Amino acid sequence: MKTVVIGIGNALRGDDAAGVAVAERLQGVACEEEPSRLIEAWEGADAAVLIDTVVSGAPAGTLHRFDASEEPIHARALRSSTHAIGLAETIELARALGKLPPRVVVYGIEGESFDAGAPLSPDVEAAVIRLVATIEEELCTSAP
Amino acid sequence: MARRRTIVTDYLARVEGEGAMTVKLDGDTVEHVELRIFEPPRFFEAFLRGRQFTEAPDITARICGICPVAYQTSAINALESLCGVEVAEPIRMLRRLLYFGEWIESHALHVYMLHAPDFLGYESAIELAKIAPEAVERGLKLKRIGNDVMTLVGGREIHPINVRVGGFYRVPTKRELRTLVEPLERAREAALETVRWTAGFDFPEREVECDLVALQWPGEYAIERGRVVSSAGLDLDPAEYEEHFEELHVERSNALQSQLKGGGTYLTGPLARYTLGHDRLSAGAREAAAEAGLGSECRDPFRSIVVRSVELVHACEESLRIIEEYEEPDAPAVEVAPVAGTGYGVSEAPRGLLYHRYRLDADGTILDAKIVPPTSQNQLAIEDDLRDVVARNTKLDDDALRRLCEQTIRNYDPCISCATHFLDLQVERT
Questions:
Q1: Nearest residue in chain A measured CA to CA from B414
Q2: Does the interface ipTM go beyond 0.95?
């Protein structure tokens, strides 16, 4: 089973870099802008694990998990996206075109600071480490 | 007594990045129109201070994920002109090719994913994909080929890392470039199809009357170099830009808005480029423009989608010509010794003119930098157009008016992420 891990975010905008940080630790793909290129990144994969920063009002570092394999993600959950076409929209675009992997899991890391040039905030940094372990475990248990 | 209404939308979809717009109406009278841009106060200009001049292309490329090559090119133009460097023709051609990759990617994204749904009555590209998947797939393929050009020449598809002051770190071989011929030929066909597709949309009759400003260079549809010319007759070296254009700080926004010195709105981008330079488009692009019914000028913001499509044809044809004529240069770059002083650089980002200015000391440290992105330059023109569109359509109900306002903004393909960050839309009728 082929699984791709893709982190979405802008590495120069504080906590927006969280998804990219997770993907880098898992030797995944970093998508720093414009998610429509995700459709190419997951082409031919059986499963995609996507990580993005979210703002929902929860405490910083809170992890959210959405299974988008069958149903759309409630787009508002990811509306903090500053990308031209958001992550949730890209997933639906791929679904409409029959280009979505059979299994799609989205992890959201709650961010709090998006200042240009800032590092990850401590709670988000800790969440990145937790999420890397979670995804590693998920990848192991789902391996054939 | 006039009817007072308030319409509020907090998120304006399908623009690059996020921003805010407010329209206030009292009955049929438009009281106030503003496009708010919340800019992280010129972070990059501050970030550049104290850095080595050789770092400017990599740093400024990070300003925008959609048009990094534009930032690199304007930066390099400013620094090389200050340091008295002329690069070899093959290097310039590679820069042009890299820039066309960015145009193809950016225009394909805007035309298909962001703009076309407005004309076809869909809320998003997702709905469009359900009804006309072949169109959306054509857009994605075009965009992919633009990415491939950027990856091969730039070393990476976004934030290219192969670009430096004086040239490139590594140049492609002829053989490597030839791998792009077949994809670009397919892209040209897709671009021609795009022109036919968009030319068939319904367009309300609109014209903007402000000055149009674009780069111009003899024999070229200027993109990576040129003089700054206007429909009113300006013809400037980039170093003279700030003598004629100024930025105003606007209370409601962290961003700066540009205007002609002493007052006056102007517009940069596809309409300006086409109107001031259509006779320098590639043969196939000129033919496609004629078939699409574009004349010797286009001042209709709605038809900017057709002009972008024509520019897609041009970008593909010119890329093919560059690859055909390419000879590997003797060296990937020339060494550049810093010179104390001020350098000025411009180029045509997909959405309009991008101006950079750098002041260096003798050891190449950047003392200060100024960056004027296209969306700041176009902001007043967008507001003027919006005011007029609203004034002519006050009879529309709130939803229809909101949609028309959003489309009016999207006509300009504003890259609010390079000028700013967060956007929400409010239409108020008071």
A1: A84
A2: no
